[in-house]
Design brief:
Elements (H helix, E strand, L loop, with lengths): L4 H4 L6 E2 L5 H11 L3 E4 L9 E4 H7 L12 H4 L6 E3 L4 H11 L3 E6 L2 E7 H15 L1
Parallel strand pairs: 1-2, 4-5
Antiparallel strand pairs: 2-3, 5-6
């Protein structure tokens, strides 16, 4: 396909502080109709994390924990799985398959600049096919 990650990535990212509550994340996710938030590093020695709707449902709601009392850093996944924006999409797909994940974050240097979901890959495939026809 010869498509680079930067060509299909979504740059609409939302972040949350690690000391925010899960309830704060729920509000943000529902309000913005998103499935994940980037968890910002606590300091220069920390790394980016991610919290997803799945994390909240299975780690908090299903266990009847109070989302007002649980901090994001307690349930976030760290570090995020990310890929350079210049990487070919085929490598991205292999990464998604290897880690059984639906989205991969895109970095430029140490900064997270985008995200690519399975749906973005599907859309790129359709566009590539349409260009050949």
């Amino acid at each position: 396909m010869n498509t680079k990650v930067k060509e299909i990535m979504n740059t609409k990212l939302e972040t949350i502080q690690p000391d925010a509550t899960v309830y704060d994340a729920i509000e943000k996710l529902v309000d913005r109709r998103m499935r994940s938030l980037i968890v910002l590093p606590k300091d220069d020695n920390d790394v980016y994390g991610v919290i997803t709707v799945r994390d909240i449902v299975f780690k908090v709601i299903s266990k009847n924990l109070d989302p007002h009392k649980i901090k994001i850093e307690e349930i976030a996944s760290k570090p995020v799985i990310s890929i350079d924006k210049e990487t070919e999409i085929e490598h991205l797909i292999k990464l998604m398959e290897k880690f059984n994940i639906a989205r991969v974050f895109v970095h430029e240097g140490k900064q997270i600049v985008g995200v690519v979901s399975l749906f973005d890959v599907l859309s790129a495939t359709l566009i590539a096919r349409a260009r050949r026809d």
